[in-house]
Amino acid sequence: MSTFLRRNRRALVALPFLLALAVAASSQRMVTLWWPNGMNDRIAVDDTGTARFEGDVELQSSVQHQRIAVRFVEAAPVDRMRMSLDEEVPVPPGFRAVRVRIHVETAPTAVITTCQVLLRDENGATWAAGTTMFDGGLADLASCQPLGVQNPSGFDIDREQDRDADPEDRLPPRPAAFERDAVFVLPEAARPTTVRVSPDLRQFAEWPLPAGAAAAGTTGP
Amino acid sequence: MSRLRRAVVLPGREGLLTVVLVVAALAAGRAVEAWTPDDRDGFGRPFVHEAAVGDTVSLRYAEVRADRVDGAPVLDRGALAPMKSPGLWVVTTLTVTPTLDNLVLANASLVDGRGRELQLGGRNVRLCAAATPGVATACVVAFEVPVDAAAGSRLRVARSAQEIRGDDLLEVDLGITAAEARGWAARTDRVSAQIPPALDPTTGTRPTEAP
């Protein structure tokens, strides 16, 4: 063995490991794509069935620190779906509907417009609430937000100036704790197994969907 | 002076070898960097799935099939004013069945026969209905192409309008021949690109498209 190899044998042995370390260090480029673009931060559900989310949400001109506690209450099959705020129709052939109820606790000032309730199956297929696939259907994009109360938005609104113009201002404030139903319309062949709630489309918590909840049913929403 | 002479130590044989090895390692690193794809055309490249019209392709987020390709100088947009082109409107109708989550196919471009990639925006049209996993829906895209560049055109569609890096992308050879393009250019009737009909909430099926 030459003197050079003998003298530098430790460095030479370490070289492949250092190269591997360098490649691993550059993996932040993958994280840049993966982390902010998906629900990658799973929050544990405690013994009471509650998931406690906490984080900062960027609003139009400020950052809001939020704490949201969510609990899955129940799920049941239903046979009608909402096409607008005041119109319900029977679920058409080839589809079925599931009503999912969650309990939410958060400050009345918390902006939860991005919070969604979702259903998932074992293959990762994910269904959102609403009936937008039907002609004239209704989107339920903020499916954690209760209806019929004031829900703060992330945009700067001059409340004093717009008080009379915005009908939402005449609604009562959102309570600190409430229940919310979300109705999912699924293809008949779909087999959801999990209820997922995500307040910011990055953090999420999951609860198993009780057996039979997604079966054909006859109760109203 | 003597201090300087002491400070400057000329490298011996081993020192020279070390210098050569370091320079070689740097050169090799530079060569590897030049050889590997960069953010623009490598790491940021989508996974391209090639297909022909009529093929159903399983992408990461949906099954997609280009059903029909048509072309004419005038594009019928239903209630909107028709658009006349000095070239051709190439209209492709697709069927999209999401498999991952609720989806509207948001990204479309057309690589014409000369290799130019025409993007959405301006007059080009993308009309895609919202869909939920397991439910087939329709999507119509229309691109304005010079007659002599229509042959050999390929349609590219993907899920996100903003972010296609590392995601699946479908590239469909539209199978347009030069003779077909000339035939379309001589048409006096319009080619249609209208919002695909959503599912009928009473029957759960998509109404038959108007001829």
Automatic annotation (TrEMBL), chain A:
* Comp. bias regions, Basic and acidic residues: 156-178
Instruction: Cite the residue spans of the region called Disordered.
Output: 149-178
- Alphabetically list the UniProt keywords: Signal
Q: Which domain of life is it from?
A: Bacteria
Signal sequence span per UniProt?
1-25
Protein name, entry field: Uncharacterized protein
From which source organism is this entry?
Phycicoccus sonneratiae
Automatic annotation (TrEMBL), chain B:
- The superkingdom of the source organism is Bacteria
Protein name per the record: Uncharacterized protein
Its source organism is: Phycicoccus sonneratiae
Q: Where is the composition biased (Polar residues)?
A: 202-211
Q: Where is this region: Disordered?
A: 187-211
